[in-house]
Amino acid sequence: MLLEQINCPSGLAAALGFSALGWTVDLLEKHASFDVRGSTLGLAPNGSKALTEILPNEDVSTLTDMGLNVPGFKGVSVLGWWIIRDWLLERVQKDLNIHLRMNVKLYSIDDTSDDSKVWVDCQGVQLEGDLVIGADGVHSQVRSLLNLEPNISTGYRVWRGSASADGEPVLEGLLDKGIRALNPLWGTTTASIFNHHPKLHKRLNWVVTAQEDASVIDPGVTTPLDLAKPFWNNEEEGVFSKLWERSENHELTKSFELFTAQLPDNLDKGWGGSGRVTIIGDAAHAIRPTTGFGTALAFEDVAILCRKFKNIKDPMTRKTCEDVILAFENERLKRIKVISEQQKEAAEAAHRGEQSQTWSEEFKLWVYAGV
Questions:
Q1: How far apart are CA 44 and CA 294, in angstroms?
Q2: What's the predicted TM-score (pTM) here?
Q3: DSSP code of residue 253
Q4: Is it the case that residue 311 has pLDDT exceeding 80?
Q5: Cα 287 vs. chain centroid, distance in angstroms?
Q6: 87, 99, 125, 301: which has the fewest C-beta neighbours closer than 10 Å?
Q7: What's the first-to-final CA gap in the chain, in angstroms?
C-alpha cells in the first residue's frame, strides 16, 4: 500500500492500521523532518475509540492521559497537536511493515489497468501498490490527481503559536484559569489562550482567527497584534503583548487560510475516490476547526477503511478495490455531513459573538459513541 501524507496523524494512523492487517506500507512524507508545530487539538472520545480499534495492542490512554479534560465535554482530551503526531510516529518508526520515505513529493498516479498495481511517480522514483490513500490535508495532491474540486475557502485566516509562561507574572496568572484561560472577541476576530499546565509545564498555546479582509490583512505581514490593538482592553493588552513577545516571529507572521470541503449532496457516490485510490481526513472532508473534531473523524476514517479491507484477499483487482472504497466513502458521508454542518454553525456564531445552539445530550452521545 502507498500512503501520501503531510506530517499528519491520520496518515500515521492509517499506516499502522494497515500494517496490523498484514499489509506492507510505503508512507510518503513530503517534508524532510517532523518538527514541533501546530497548536491545540481536542481528541474526542470517538477519536480515541477509533485509535483503540486501529491499534488493538496499544494502550491509547497513554496518549489521552498527556492531555487535559474539557469541562462539559467528558472524555475530550486537549493536547498539543504534535503530541498526537509524535505518539503515532514513535510506533510507525518501530513497525517493520512500514517504510517511511521522507522528503518525497508525489507527481502522478497511474491507475488505469485492472490487472496491475497502481503506480505513483515520486520525483522520478516509481513505486507500486494495491492501494493509494491520500492523507495529505486540505491542499491534497492526491485530491488534485483525482481531478476533484479543491477544498473551498471559509473566508477566515488563522494564526497559532505557543509560549512559556515561566517567570512572567502576567502569563503565570493564567495557569489557574482552566483550559481556555482567555477567549476575547475583537470585532470579528476570535482569540483563545489554552493553558496546558500542569501536563506541559507552564505552557500556553494560542490561536487567533480573523475574517479575511484585504484592506486589513496582508498575509505574511499582518500579525495578531495588528488585529487586536484597535479592540483590546488593558487586561488583554497586558496578557497578549507578553504572550506574543515570547512566541516565535514566524508564528506571528505566518497565517493559514481555513478551508472546508464541499461535501456532495448525493450520499451514494462517495466523495471522489476512484479505482485503487481514496482520500481521508481533511483531504476528503475538511471541517471548521471549532472543537477539534477533524482528527477524530480522520481516525474514524482509518478504522472503517481497515474494516472494509480486512477480509479482502489477493489477488485484489481494481474493481474489487473500487467497490470497497465506494462503500467506505458512502458510509462516512452520512455521519460527516451532519457533524460538518454543526461545526460550521458553531464557528460562524463564535465570530458573531454568539453561542451556537448547545448540543443536545442525544447528539453528543451519538458523536462520542463513534463508529
A1: 10
A2: 0.92
A3: H
A4: yes
A5: 9
A6: 125
A7: 24
